[in-house]
Design a protein that fits this description.
Layout lengths: L1 E5 L5 H10 L4 E5 L3 H8 L3 E4 L16 H5 L4 E4 L1 H9 L3 E17 L15 E14 L5 E6 L6 E4 L4 E4 L11 H12 L8 H16 L3 E6 L3 H14 L3 E7 L7 H12 L4 E5 L1 H8 L5 H23 L2 E5 L4 H7 L26 E3 L7 H10 L4 H4 L19 H20 L8 E15 L2 E14 L7 E2 L4 H14 L3 E6 L13
Parallel strand pairs: 1-2, 1-3, 3-4, 4-9, 10-11, 10-13, 11-12, 13-14, 16-18
Antiparallel strand pairs: 5-6, 5-7, 7-8, 8-9, 15-16, 16-17
The structure holds xanthosine-5'-monophosphate.
């Protein structure tokens, strides 16, 4: 087991992910609870995350001392490095040279962390995000790599097995980062990777049972993989103490509602309430064009409809959601930190206290591909597990401008043709997410002898591993041409199709 001490970095969860990819169980705890967790968990190693604070601040968070004196290996990352260096007697100063983003570091000495990955004298690409730097080494340490902005960029104490680095090895922008973490986990801490998704399933089931007891849970199904996996997992844990509520907001894809009802009610025999609330949603969304207002409106209505259903079901103590890790971080904003709310995801936060229900979120620590693995582990049909992600606010955010039933119908049909094309060409599984967007513009076209004045459909397809960054998918032009022709011929109201070639960043995957 590894204990990860969180100092508030946006990417702490990525450290956990890397460790789990190496097949080692780990838990994340906030720095102010680390002392107790350390005693209870008795981890074989500790990793200190980055964070937005500066060790030079008066109330800077620090590592509880027992973690540094218990004789377990410690890996400090960014803020974790700085506080570790300072607490062990080194000096940290405000950097005259702030480094954010891609940087090159030069390895100046051999070190167990670099074994088989980096060589002395080599220069390697890493991802930096820090203002302070270590200027004097604590006793027992040596510097093993330097960067332009920080002459002491990686530090090592081989006797205590303490290692620390200024850069972030957990992000994909540090191409060798995962291997460095693996060296720490496997070679330095000596852990063998035998932790699997099956173990996660068992652990989560135990956690759900412990949390819920004899309580009743209601779970919102959205039609997507996440809520489906959450529901099946919870059902496995507590059986019919779970009732699923499927709120059909009228913003779903073609035939989606039917698929969900069939799978849950008929295949899994999970108690399911199907609420057709499309009138209410589309009514309130009428004339709303601002993306955040759309998201907030849908989020609020969703909760209202839920509350009404919960009342009807009666006595539900818990609300289950398929919240994933990327939903959590992109919705959190640290005051003063580098992160801002990018989009308010409708399934996170904002759950009114008045609902008086506690949350069950068994997937909160997982990334999408891990949820898929878990879904397969739980025996969900491949067609469902392999499905592209679909956002909670549904087609509302794929219909920039105001939303009408007519526009939604056009969008649904265009989207179905596009996805059909992708499946027919065997491309579905290569793509992380593909969908059509209905643009709020009409353009002139010509069909037969007549002039047309119809909508433009935008096509989006991206590859990604976690939804946090993405590249647009490189279709061949023949495929795009054929798809455009099919959409224009088969979907009335569309006379032009465009393809979106923006990656994330700077774009987001969805258009709103
Ligand atoms: P963006 O557009 O932020 O999307 O690049 C990243 C991933 O998140 C999905 N997404 C959402 N999922 N509720 C969700 O459950 C939401 O409000 C929401 N907004 C975006 C999006 O489809 C992509 O997979």
């Amino acid at each position: 087991k590894i204990l990860i001490v969180d100092f508030g970095s946006q990417v702490t969860q990525l450290i956990a992910r890397r460790v789990r990819e190496d097949g080692v169980y780990c838990e994340i705890v906030p720095f102010n609870k680390a002392d107790g967790a350390f005693k209870e968990m008795k981890p074989k190693a500790v990793i200190l995350s980055g964070g937005p604070a500066s060790v030079l601040d008066a109330n800077a968070p620090s590592v509880p001392l027992p973690l540094l004196t218990a004789g377990v290996p410690v890996l400090g990352i960014c803020y974790g490095e700085q506080t570790m260096a300072q607490q062990l007697g080194g000096t940290v100063e405000g950097g005259h040279h702030r480094e954010f983003g891609r940087a090159t570091i030069e390895v100046t000495d051999d070190c167990a962390l670099f074994e088989g990955v980096w060589e002395k004298g080599g220069r390697y690409e890493v991802w930096m995000s820090h203002g302070d730097r270590v200027t004097r080494l604590p006793d027992g340490f040596r510097g093993v790599a330097k960067a332009q902005g920080s002459p002491i960029s990686v530090i090592a104490d081989d006797v205590r097995k303490f290692y620390a680095m200024q850069f972030h090895p957990e992000v994909v922008h540090t191409p060798d980062g995962a291997k460095l973490i693996r060296n720490f986990v496997r070679k330095i801490a000596g852990l063998t990777g035998d932790w699997t998704m099956r173990a996660f399933r068992e652990e989560e089931i135990a956690k759900i049972r412990a949390q819920v007891g004899k309580g009743k849970v209601i779970c919102g199904l959205s039609g997507g993989v996440d809520s489906a996996v959450a529901a099946v997992l919870i059902h496995e844990a507590i059986g019919d103490q779970l009732t699923c509520v499927f709120v059909d907001h009228g913003l779903l894809r073609l035939d989606e509602a039917k698929t969900v009802v069939d799978l849950f009610r008929h295949h899994y025999n999970i108690p399911l309430v199907h609420v057709d609330a499309s009138k209410q949603f589309l009514g309130e969304l009428e004339g709303v064009t601002d993306p955040e207002t759309k998201r907030k409106t849908i989020g609020r209505l969703f909760i209202e409809v839920f509350e009404a259903e919960a009342k009807k079901i009666g006595g539900a103590d818990f609300l289950a959601q398929g919240t994933l890790y990327p939903d959590v971080i992109e919705s959190v904003s640290f005051t003063g930190g580098p992160s801002v709310t990018i989009k308010s995801h409708h399934n996170v936060g904002g759950l009114p206290e008045r609902m008086n229900m506690k949350l069950v979120e068994p997937l909160r620590e997982l990334f999408k591909d891990e949820v898929r693995k878990l879904g397969r582990e739980l025996g969900l049909p491949e067609i469902f597990v392999g499905r592209h992600p679909f956002p909670g606010p549904g087609l509302a955010i794929r219909c920039p401008g105001d939303i009408t039933r007519d526009k939604l119908d056009i969008l649904r049909k265009a989207d179905a043709v596009y996805i059909d094309q992708i499946r027919k060409h065997g491309l579905y599984d290569e793509i992380w997410q593909a969908f059509a967007v209905l643009l709020p513009v009409k353009t002139v076209g010509v069909m037969g002898d007549g002039r047309t004045y119809d909508y433009v459909v935008g096509l989006r397809a991206v590859t990604s591993t976690d939804g946090m960054t993405a590249d647009f998918y490189q279709f061949d032009m023949k495929f795009l041409g054929e798809t455009a022709t099919r959409i224009i011929n088969e979907v009335k109201g569309v006379n032009r199709v465009v393809y979106d070639v923006t990656s994330k960043p700077p774009g987001t995957i969805e258009w709103e």
